[in-house]
Design a protein that fits this description.
With 193 residues, the protein is α+β, with helices and mostly antiparallel strands. It folds into two domains: 161 residues, Immunoglobulin-like (Sandwich); 29 residues. Helix content is 23%, strand content 32%. It has a five-stranded mixed beta sheet, with no helix packed on it. A five-stranded antiparallel beta sheet has the order 7-8-3-10-11, with no helix packed on it. A two-stranded antiparallel ribbon has the order 4-5. Strand 4 and strand 5 form a beta hairpin.
Length: 193
């Protein structure tokens, strides 16, 4: 069964010229989180960019054909209205993780719009935003979208990126003018000397 799924997915990808991004889909995914006791609540904002020419009916997080990347099974998950969600995992395969498949047949994500998907997990943010411990260690956020149901329509592989932490962003905004000031001062000192 696993080989059949993988072969079907590869055929779907290569039918559009051999590149996963050869189809009319153009997306971004941003991951944020908040602590929830010993667990974390994760939120993924999936945006089907206005440059897309097709809607999205399937979002498969932490997955590529035949490979799941989350270390542990999510404890719960939330899907937008009209979408369903399922945890995927090949049982009895110790070298495989977990993933979440979100799909719809009635409320597709149209170009120029965003939807928010969520899950709760004991996996820490460094585990979810880092490299997978499975397979060839791709980023855990490596994911797929399809313009149709799984393995149907155009497909695009992409990586869900972490939203910068507010403290890191604030430090960068504070540090940038200071670094610019140092560079100007250094240049003036060189001219004077």
């Amino acid at each position: 069964m696993r080989k059949l799924i993988f072969a079907t997915a590869i055929a779907a990808l290569f039918s559009s010229g051999g590149r996963a991004d050869a189809g009319p889909l153009d997306v971004t995914g941003l991951l944020s989180w908040t602590p929830n006791g010993a667990n974390f609540d994760y939120s993924i904002t999936l945006t089907n960019l206005a440059t897309s020419t097709d809607s999205i009916e399937t979002f498969w997080y932490a997955w590529v054909p035949g490979e799941d990347f989350l270390v542990t099974s999510p404890l719960s998950f939330t899907a937008p209205a009209g979408w369903t969600s399922t945890i995927t995992h090949f049982p009895n395969v110790a070298t495989n993780g977990y993933a979440i498949q979100f799909k719809t047949s009635t409320d597709a994500l149209d170009p120029g719009h965003s939807l928010v998907f969520g899950f709760t997990s004991p996996d820490t943010p460094s585990m979810v935003t880092g490299l997978s411990t499975f397979f060839d260690h791709p980023p855990v956020g490596t994911s797929f979208v399809y313009s149709g149901q799984p393995f149907q329509g155009d497909a695009l592989q992409f990586v869900v990126q972490a939203v910068p932490e507010p403290t890191s962003l604030a430090l960068g905004l504070i540090a940038a003018p200071a670094l610019a000031g140092l560079a100007i001062r250094r240049r003036r000192c060189r001219r004077a000397g």
